[in-house]
């Protein structure tokens, strides 16, 4: 395929419809808004407005709290560390390269699920107590960065 052979897929490019440009345009006079009524006027098509009735988003109960300042970790299992060879240094970059995590977010946290058999040096932001114990038991090091 060459650059001059490229073209948009069918339906990707639709012609611009010029509203309110005469009867011959197929969309003239009322420009698709019909005759009279609130929806034919300008500036009153407010999303969620229910004619003065209490809107649904205000009628429903609100629950919980979302802490937008919380630290979000990309989590991995201890068993994921077995994908590295013994003596390897495991950090966020190495985990991304192996495809174990997609994003680092605010850091990487190792959870204690599974077992690790190889001695690896792990340099990440956080560990659970059981994860740290399992890494050290296998002869590795768990360093917090």
Explain what this protein looks like in three dimensions.
The chain is α/β, with parallel strands linked by helices and 145 residues long. 14% of the residues lie in helices and 14% in strands. The protein has helices spanning 56-59, 92-98, 129-137, and strands at residues 74-77, 89-90, 108-111, 121-124, 126-127, 141-144. The strands form 2 sheets. The chain has a 3-stranded parallel sheet with strand order 1-3-5. Strands 2-4-6 form a 3-stranded parallel sheet. The longest helix is centred in the last third of the chain and has 9 residues, at 129-137.
Brief rundown of the structure:
With 145 residues, the chain is α/β, with parallel strands linked by helices. The chain is built from 3 helices and 6 strands.
Task: State the main characteristics.
alpha/beta; 145 residues; elongated; three-stranded parallel sheet
